[in-house]
Amino acid sequence: MRAAAEKKRIIYIGGFELPDKNAAAQRVMTNAVILRELGYDVVFIDIDRECKEDILKTKRVCGGFDRWSVKYSNKRLYSSSDFKKVYGKYNDVAGVIAYNYPAAALYGILRFCRRSKIWCAADCTEWYGALAEDIITRAVKGVDSYLRMNIIQPRLDGVIAVSRYIYNYYSKRTNTVLLPPLVDARDEKWHGKNIGERLVFSFVGTLGVEKDRPNYMVEAFSKIKSDYVFNIVGIPEEEYTAHYPEHRELIKQMRGKIIFRGTLPHKKALEFVKNADFTVFCRDKTRMTNAGFPTKFVESITCGTPVITTRTSDLGEYLKDGENGFFVDSIEDDLPRIFERGTAKLKSMSGSVDKDTFDYRRYEDKMKNWIISLEKRKTD
């Protein structure tokens, strides 16, 4: 067995679906690349919705990392047994990073880490309220969120915060580093922008939790008389009109201008982002939207596509109004102002986008210093 100082393996566990089935998977994969370049071996424990086997039968390699998968079940809300099984397969674990992990199970992992004399940290990218339709589910989620954010995570050895909102909350309580969603900007999937003559706008997202507001955007674009195309990726038309039945007639009238592209694989969805003049999304300003950080903003900037959005989270640190995008207070009121700039000027704005803004290489030193602090705390 390696000596404690030689332990260079980190277990990264959470509700991400590797390799790229959700935004969480993209975040943790990039963070793992940074950790690997810092000399650590990363082991993933993710969720597989099709898994029917015991976790010890699920091992495979993903992006050069060991990956183990748990079943999508309520067990992960309270049990740390699967984590302990995987931990037992390695003799050189230095620590654990738990991604937005359920409170009860996270507490179990923390206690295990204390006994095993390894560090335990959280990757925190959200602060949801008790959003659910039935009162029992709302109560359970509310309690879980309160315990995780206010009681358990402050006791951890460290926190990776996705936003300044979360960073400010934890930085005086534990070892905290601020890392927005990161990417490998050199990956070919971000390259190959193809801009045509018409103005093209794209939204990529789902209906789900009422975070993005595609109905606001549809109503705003329906009042624009100029020539454009607005692609909605990730939402089939029938799903949208079932959710917003008042827009059925409006969608028919806008046929050819507002186009629903349905659910697509991630790389295919990125093609619509790359070939757009602007990515558009609108979010109400709440604790949830300020605590998070929109991955779609990161992806759009990395594609070289300016963004039209509301001012939430830390976007004010990256979006320069009129240069690499526009902030709007009301998309319906402000969209005409944007169109008044003219097609040529709007199309030229992509040249002002720094595609390397969220490249992970710019954040390696921050992660390195955070890890050094974690290791020092465990040896003091």
From TrEMBL:
One Pfam assignment: Glycos_transf_1
Residue ranges of domain Glycosyl transferase family in the record: 194-330
Spans traversing the lipid bilayer: none
Top-level taxonomic group: Bacteria
InterPro entries per record: Glyco_trans_1 (IPR001296)
Any GO molecular function: glycosyltransferase activity
Annotated signal peptide: none
Name of the protein described by the UniProt record: Glycosyltransferase
Species whose genome carries this gene: Candidatus Ornithomonoglobus intestinigallinarum
